[in-house]
Amino acid sequence: MASSISLRFATLSIVITALLAFHANAQLSPQFYANTCPNLLSIVRAATQQAVNSEPRMAASILRLFFHDCFVNGCDGSVLLDGTTTMQSEKSAGANANSARGFDVIDTIKSRVEAACRATVSCADILALATRDGIVALGGPTWAVPLGRRDSRVANFSGANSDLPGPGSSLATLLSMFQVKGLNARDLTALSGAHTIGQTQCRFFRNRIYNDANINATFATTRRTTCPSTSGNGDLNLAPLDVQTPIRFDNAYYQNLLTRRGLLHSDQELFNSGSQDALVRTYSTNSATFFSDFIAAMVKMGNITPLTGTNGEIRRNCRRAN
Known about the structure:
This protein has 14 helices and 2 strands; from the N terminus they run H-H-H-H-H-H-H-H-E-H-H-E-H-H-H-H. By secondary structure, it is mainly alpha-helical. A two-stranded antiparallel sheet has the order 1-2. The longest helix has 23 residues, at 2-24.
């Protein structure tokens, strides 16, 4: 009974937080395409489910694209643009080169949406919806995604190099970079829970497993077997961000932090005798609180300076401007 009541309160909290976010950015609404593309949600959901069924890791890859999109010039689909002779793409920036993936899945979804509703739905909104649906496909929570974003005509290569937190970031750096985007410490810790799914490359965690002191020794030894101490052929070798349940969206990520098994230095910084330790402990034992805070933070992140109204465009192809 107590857990049922707790879950109902958590759900109510989600609804209230989401409504506040919608009010703060009234131009975005979950009903934005209700009349112009009524089958949008089912189209995106089916295509995303198909992609995740084929490769569960894809849910994390799409989620990462959404994060990397929103943190650079806001949620405008700019991360999806290919480079041109006059524009460097965000795909080629340090945080994305040879690691960002899932573009082909977004292309597939876009083509199906275009077939149903030509020149109506932005790539930015498709990415936001696919992110939610990928999380749900791996057992995570669902929420109403605010819609109405338009697409940027240009990418921001320099912004992608400067605005995205790195895997070696300190807690102070993470807090500062999130604050610039209007996200607070609780948002940071909740959004970091996205690392309960997916994998990352050896080059991003090498320094942690060989040089960090705040790491479980057995965990470090295991990771070293596929990640050599010097850069080279092993740079792109993959390891799960969540060693317990790498293809299930749950709160195991926080449990890993308690035992010093965060894969990235930036992960473990959340539980390192700092300001977020208590919240990490809460999330590690209370998945309802984690889910509630994660949803609120995702809605908030999705509201970072979107293009709306007559700004930007509705791209016909997510890889290039019209």
